[in-house]
Amino acid sequence: MKLYDSLTDELASWIRQQPVFFTGSASTHGPHINVSPKGLADSHFAILSPNRCAYIDRMGSGCETISHSYENGRLCLMFMSFGPTPRILRLFCRSSIVEWDSPRFEELVRTIAQASPRTAFDGARAVIVCDIWQVQTSCGFGVPRVKRGIYAADKEDHDGELGAKTGDAHNTGDTAVDMEKLLREGHVGGQKLTELCVFEERPQLDYWAGIMVSKNTALKYQAKHNARSIDGLPGMKTARRENNEVLWLGDAAAYLRRTSAEKVSVAVGFLLGVLFYFIVGALNLVPR
């Protein structure tokens, strides 16, 4: 995992090639967490600067992202590769909403769609402007990929790939590909072909994890990377024990940090307590 303060040119270029991304948001105190898939990225999403992006939000049956943005502004955008090179990228953002009746709306839509032949979007209800404060990349070994034989030659696809096996892709160069045979690989014989047949599992996760286990280094890796979240919250208990952490002390410290972060609630509670004291005093209800 790597963290960046802003998007590099290479990461921005990679993002523009992805056909789908996901948004994640939540209310401050509500029980629901919302994750939404977004397509049409070439015409609905744009990177405006290394620390700002935006996307056009079309009319739908819910408005979770908009509601959460109005309440607390927290938003995460996630992109992932379905190609030969695995990658997951997250943009941690502070979001703001520009609704369709705002004077800024039409100009923002034109800016976002300028690389696309489209100029109008029926049912576009808002533009979600995302100010990026951190960028995270990780491996993505567990994300399936599109079967490589559909689009890439064998030699081109295997160069430098971790855990690749000779001959596990179809050559799409001078040799014709038996597409139905390719699509049926990994599926039970006789089953009807579906859109899922274009995907295959990546070999990297099993290859990498197998090496870690064979060298007896898996627990050390977890102790280094899985004991805390990127926000400092307690993580895997086994990893924390490996680091000789006293679990109840770590949990108590996390609870105090969480409680102290609710500054408004603490302040309101204090003021209500003071107000209650004076009301009781004014009504002579305090025993003397």
Main attributes of the structure:
single chain; 288 residues; alpha+beta; Pnp Oxidase, Chain A; 3 domains; eight-stranded antiparallel sheet; two-stranded antiparallel sheet; 11 helices; globular; transmembrane
Give the topology:
Blueprint: E1 2-4, H1 9-16, E2 21-26, E3 33-38, H2 41-44, E4 45-49, E5 52-58, H3 64-71, E6 74-80, E7 88-99, H4 105-112, E8 124-138, E9 145-146, H5 154-158, H6 179-184, E10 199-200, H7 204-214, H8 218-225, H9 237-242, H10 247-261, H11 263-282
Strand tally: 10
Reported CATH architecture of the largest domain? Roll
**Main beta-sheet annotation:** 8 strands, antiparallel
The name of the CATH superfamily of the largest domain reads Electron Transport, Fmn-binding Protein, Chain A
Radius of gyration of CA atoms, rounded to a whole number: 25 Å
Shape: globular
Number of helices: 11
Number of domains: 3
InterPro entries: Split_barrel_FMN-bd (IPR012349)
Protein name: Pyridoxamine phosphate oxidase family protein
Keywords: Membrane, Transmembrane, Transmembrane helix
Transmembrane segments: 266-286
